Amino acid sequence: MVGVSDGQAPAASRTPVGRPLLSLALTAMMDEVQAHSGAVYLLWPEQPVLEMAVMAGLPRAFAAPWERVGLNAVIPVSDAARERRLVWVSNEEEMARRYPRLAVVLPYPFALAALPVATDTRVYGAVFVTWPGAHPPELSDHERDHLTAACRRLAVRLERAADMSLPLAPEPDLLGAPPVGGAAGTLGTVEAARMVARLPYGLCSLDLHGRVVFANGAAAELIGVPVHRLLGHHLWASVPWLNDPMYEDRYRAALMSQQVASFVAMRPPGDWLSFRLYPSTTGLSVRITRSRAVAQMTTSERRPVASGGSPSRLVTISQVLNLAGALTEAAGVQDVVQLVADEIAPAVGAQAVVVLASRAGRLHVLGHRGYPDPHVVERFDGIPLNEQTPGVHALNSGVPAFFDSREELDRLYPARQATPDGFAAWAYLPLIASGRPVGTCVLAYAEPHPFPPEERAVLTSVGGLIALALERAVLYDIKHQLAHGLQAALLPHSLPPLPGVAAAARYLPATRGMDIGGDFYDLVPTEGGAAAVIGDVQGHNVTAAGLMGQLRTAVRAYTTVGQAPEQVMASTNRLLIDLGAELFASCLYLRLDPAHGRAVMARAGHPPPLLLRPDGRVRVLDLAGGPLLGIDGSATYPTTEVTLTPGSVLVLYTDGLIESPGVDIEDALAGLGRRLAGAGEQPLDQLADVLVGHLAAAEERLDDVALLLLRAEG
Q1: What is the phi/psi pair of residue 697, to 5°?
Q2: Does pTM top 0.85 for this prediction?
Q3: Alpha-carbon distance 531 to 495, whole Å?
Q4: Cα separation of 333 and 462, whole Å?
Q5: In whole angstroms, how far apart are CA 391 and each of 355, 366, 425, 444, 471?
Q6: Cα 643–645–650 angle (5° rounding)?
Q7: Which of 182, 181, 225 is nearest to 204 (CA)?
Q8: CA distance 368 to 334
Q9: How far is CA 425 from CA 357, 404, 406, 583, in A?
Q10: Alpha-carbon span 665 to 681, nearest angstrom
Q11: What is the rounded distance in angstroms from the CA atom of residue 678 to the CA atom of residue 667?
Q12: CA distance from start to end of the chain
C-alpha cells in the first residue's frame, strides 16, 4: 500500500493511510489508457454494498445515483465486482441494451470499462473508467492488460492495509483545474484579455462543475447579466431564462462525450442566442452568438423555463430516473421487494427495508431485507388499519413520516419500546397508486439519520415509484397464478403407469406473455398398449391454452372409441376447423404396442421424433405426414410403423426445444441427439432434466417447450 511498509505496524501507529492511495491509483490508471473520467468503489465490510470512494475527471453529480449501490445491482461496477470480471461497454447503443437504467440518466456517447479490485481470496471493490464516444469499439490489449494489472495492484495494497488495520483516509475527488496565466505560452494575460475583449462574440469558460470562471464583455452583453454576477456561479443559475434541464443536459453531454454540443435559447422577449460548447478534460469553453436560424426553429424547441436553480437538482433528477428505471424491470411482488432492497435502500443509506401491503383492512408483510432477527418483522403482519402505529398512520394520511432517532419515534409511538429492532432512524413512506393506498415502505437506518428537505423530497418521490411498481406487480402475480392454474388444469397431473412402457414428461412455459401457451401432451391407456400425443397450438395466450385443452380432450375421446391413428388425426383436424378458432396446430400421435415391439405414428406438421436405440445410436424418424391441423378439412394423415426393441427411447417434443434465433434447425437437432446419446442410460426423469436443462436455466424462453419420453421395457 502506498505510504505503508511491508512490516506489521504497531498498534499505536495504526493511523489512517496518509497519501491518497485511491486517487493516485485511479489517476495513474486513467493516464496510462487515456481515459477522461473514472471512479473507485469500495465494498462495505459484511454488507453487499459498493460505495464510491473517489471520482476523477467529472463532477460526482454525474454519478450521483450510483454513489452507493447494491452488489446485485445491474450496473457495470456491480457486475464487475460480483462476477470478478472486466465489463466493457463500447457505446451508447450497447449501454442502452445492457444497462438501460444507466443509459436513461446518461444518454451520451461514451465507452466504459469496469473491473473488480480483487485478490484471489477477496473482493475489495471495483473501478470504472470512461472514454469519449470516439474510442474504438474494442478495448485494446494494452488497455485491458494495464487496467487489469493496476486493479490487481490496488487490491494487494488494500489487502496489506487491511492486514495492518490501517483505515483509508477520506480522499477528495479529482477535477482538472481551469488554465490560469498566459495563452499558449506566447501572450501575456493582459494582452490575452484584450484580444478576447475585441472579439464580436461572447466567450465563457466553465469548470467541470459548470461554474463560470471567465466571461468576456460580449458574453455579458448578449445574455444581459454583468460579468461579476456570472463568475463563480452556474450559467443556468445566474441567467433565469437558461434555467432549463435541457441546457444542463447539453453541458453534461459535452463533458461525458468530449464532443462539441450546442443549443439555441431565447433571451426574453424575443432574442434567440446560439450556444456552442467546446469540451476538454478541464472544463468547457462556450461561444455565444446571435442565432441566424430562428425562423427555422419549431415551436417544439421552445421549451418551458424550469423553476428553481439549485445545482443539487441534477442529483435528484438522476436518482429518480435511475430508480424509476429499476422499478420498471420488476415483474412480481418479490421483484419489487428485491429491487427496493438492492437498489433503493443502498442509494439512500438505509440498512433494512420492509414492504407492507394493505389488504382486507390490515397491513401484511410482502417482504423484508436487512433485519438481523426476521421475527421482529412479524409484528407488522396483520396490523389493523385503525392501530396507532407509524406504518398505519403514514398509509391512512398519505403523508410520509421521518424519525431522526429512536427517542423521537418512542415519544410518538411508545408501544414500539417493547419490540426494539436494533435500528436508530426510520422513514415510513406511504405507497399511493391510482389515488388509493396500497401499502407502506419502511426504511430503517443503523445510526441516527437526519432527513433534510431535499432527501425527504427524493424519498417521497421514490415512494410514489414503489407504489406504482407494487400495484403493477400485484396484478402481474394474480395473472401469473391464474395462468399457471389454467395451464396445470389443462395438462395431465401425472402420467398413468403402463405395462411394458416407462414415461416421463416436462413442460416449460415461455417467459414472455402470460407464461401460458398451447403446447400439450398426453398418454392414454388402450387395450394392449397406449396412445401418446404431443402438439402445439400457435400462440401464448388464454385462447391458445383453451383450444389446446379442447384438442387434448378430443384426442382422448377419439382414442377411447377405437379410431386408428390416421382417423384420430383426421377427426381432430375437422374439429379444429369446425371450432372456427382460426388457429393452427401441429401434432404427433402414436399408438404403442409394447407386446409386439412397435409403434404406429401419424404426424401433422410436427417436428420429427428421435429414437434412441439400445446400442446408443440416435435416429431422427422421418415420418410420413400431412399438413398442420386446422388448414384443410379434407387432409389425410398417413401412418408410419416403427420398431421398438426393449430399451429403446422415443423422444417427442415441441419446436420450443430446438428452435432459437440464429441457430440452424439441423444443428439444434444434432445437439439434441448428442445430449440424448450421452445421457440415454439414465432413468427417464433424469434424462428429461438433461434434455431441457439448458432451457430451464435460461432467463428468457421465446416459446413453450413440451417433452414426452417413452421407453420400451422388456
Answers
A1: -85, -10
A2: no
A3: 12
A4: 16
A5: 10, 14, 14, 12, 18
A6: 70
A7: 225
A8: 10
A9: 22, 5, 6, 59
A10: 25
A11: 17
A12: 71
Question: Residue 337 pLDDT more than 80?
Answer: yes
- List C-alpha distances in Å: 660 to 446, 544, 549, 666: 49, 21, 26, 12
Is there a contact between 3 and 17 (Cβ–Cβ < 8 Å)? Answer: yes
Q: Closest by alpha carbon to 284, among 314, 311, 252? A: 252
Task: Give the whole-angstrom CA distance, residue 472 versus residue 336.
Answer: 10
Rounded Cα gap, residues 623 and 631, in angstroms: 20
How deeply is 444 buried, as exposed, middle or buried, from its count of CB atoms within 10 A (0-12, 13-18, 19+)? buried
Q: Is the pLDDT of residue 639 over 70?
A: yes
Place 111 in a pLDDT band, splitting at 50, 70 and 90: very high
CA distance 589 to 568: 8
Cα 324 to its chain centre, rounded Å, is 12
Specify the 3-state DSSP secondary structure of 437.
Answer: strand
d(C-alpha 336, C-alpha 342), whole Å:
10
DSSP labels, 550-602: HHHHHHHHHHHTT--HHHHHHHHHHHHHHHT----EEEEEEEEEGGGTEEEEE
Q: Is 199 helix (H, G, I), strand (E, B) or coil?
A: coil
Q: E strands of 349-479, at which residues? A: 352-359, 362-369, 383-384, 401-403, 425-433, 436-445
Task: Cell numbers for 223, please give them.
Answer: 445574455
- CA 226 from chain centre, in angstroms, equals 47
Confidence grade of residue 705 (pLDDT, cut at 50, 70, 90):
confident
Q: What angle do CA 532, 536, 539 make, to 5 degrees?
A: 160
Confidence of residue 296 (pLDDT cuts 50, 70, 90): very low
Give 284: exposed, middle or buried? Use CB within 10 Å, 0-12, 13-18, 19+. Answer: buried
Contacts of 38 (CB under 8 A, 6+ apart): 26, 29, 30, 55, 56, 57, 127, 128, 129, 130
Q: What is the pLDDT of residue 416?
A: 62
